[in-house]
């Protein structure tokens, strides 16, 4: 394993144009393309090659896009609707019995804000996303790097989740805020 991949996996600054990472993204893109083009009955084997874990009874609708695939773990009986984007430069862990609406984005990548030169040189880092059990995301939800969503939480359509959400709440908005307990 090369230096930049090690740095990425540790959550440190790394260069996304490192040849090893470029090749891993190319492999993931090929598998995503295969998944997105194949008939429904042929999708699961492709997902099992792509993802770090696909739990029993879980399924994903096409179009699926991800960076690496192997950093995505999906629990049992979970569902990702059409047009999911999983930017998995850090681990994305999705629990059991999760329902994710269409056009959701789970984005782990971070770029230097204050150091313009590092950003120009394509340095970045990433922070993991964890989605608890029995969570429901409405359509178009965006989850930002480093966020954890607690068990049994519902996130309203179009929300941008920038901070952790506790268990058993309904949250919505941009930025996403807790509306009430469930």
Textual characterization of the structure:
The chain has 182 residues and is an alpha/beta fold. 22% of the residues lie in helices and 31% in strands. It is built from 4 helices and 20 strands. The strands form 4 sheets. Strands 3-6-9-14-17-19-20 form a 7-stranded mixed beta sheet, with no helix packed on it. A hairpin with a 2-residue loop joins strand 19 and strand 20. Helix 2 packs antiparallel against helix 3. The radius of gyration is 16 Å and the shape is globular. The N and C termini lie far apart (45 Å). The model has no long low-confidence stretch (mean pLDDT 97).
Question: Key terms for this structure?
Answer:
single chain, 182 residues, alpha/beta, five-stranded parallel beta sheet, 4 helices, 31% strand
Quickly describe the structure.
This protein is an alpha/beta fold.
Quaternary state of this entry equals single chain
Measured between the Cα atoms of the first and last residue, the distance is 45 Å
Low confidence ranges: none
Instruction: Classify the beta-strand content into a percent band.
Output: 25-35%
What is the makeup of the main sheet? 7 strands, mixed
Mean pLDDT: 97
Shape: globular
Q: What's the total helix number?
A: 4
How many DSSP E strands? 20
Helix content: 10-25%
Our Rg estimate from Cα atoms comes to: 16 Å
Summarize the helix and strand pattern as letters: HEHHEEEEEEEEEEHEEEEEEEEE
* Backbone structural class: alpha/beta
Strand order of the largest sheet: 3-6-9-14-17-19-20
Secondary-structure map:
Blueprint (H helix, E strand, L loop, with lengths): L2 H8 L3 E2 L3 H19 L5 H8 L2 E2 L4 E2 L3 E3 L5 E3 L4 E2 L3 E4 L4 E3 L4 E2 L4 E3 L1 E2 L5 H5 L2 E4 L2 E3 L4 E2 L4 E2 L4 E2 L4 E2 L4 E2 L7 E5 L2 E6 L1
């Amino acid at each position: 394993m090369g230096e930049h991949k090690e740095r990425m996996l540790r959550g440190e600054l790394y260069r996304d144009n490192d040849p090893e990472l470029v090749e891993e993204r190319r492999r993931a893109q090929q598998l995503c393309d295969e998944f997105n083009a194949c008939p429904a009955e042929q999708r699961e084997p492709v997902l099992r090659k792509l993802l770090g874990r696909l739990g029993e009874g879980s399924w994903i609708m096409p179009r699926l896009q991800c960076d690496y695939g192997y950093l995505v773990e999906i629990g049992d009986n979970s569902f990702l609707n059409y047009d999911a984007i999983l930017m998995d430069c850090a681990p994305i862990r999705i629990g059991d019995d999760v329902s994710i609406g269409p056009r959701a984005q789970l984005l782990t990548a971070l770029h230097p804000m204050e150091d313009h030169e590092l950003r120009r040189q394509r340095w970045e880092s990433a922070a993991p996303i964890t989605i608890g059990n029995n969570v429901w995301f409405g359509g178009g939800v965006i989850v930002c790097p480093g966020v954890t969503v607690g068990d049994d939480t519902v996130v309203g359509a179009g929300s941008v989740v920038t901070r952790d959400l506790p268990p058993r709440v309904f949250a919505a908005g941009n930025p996403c805020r807790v509306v009430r307990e469930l």
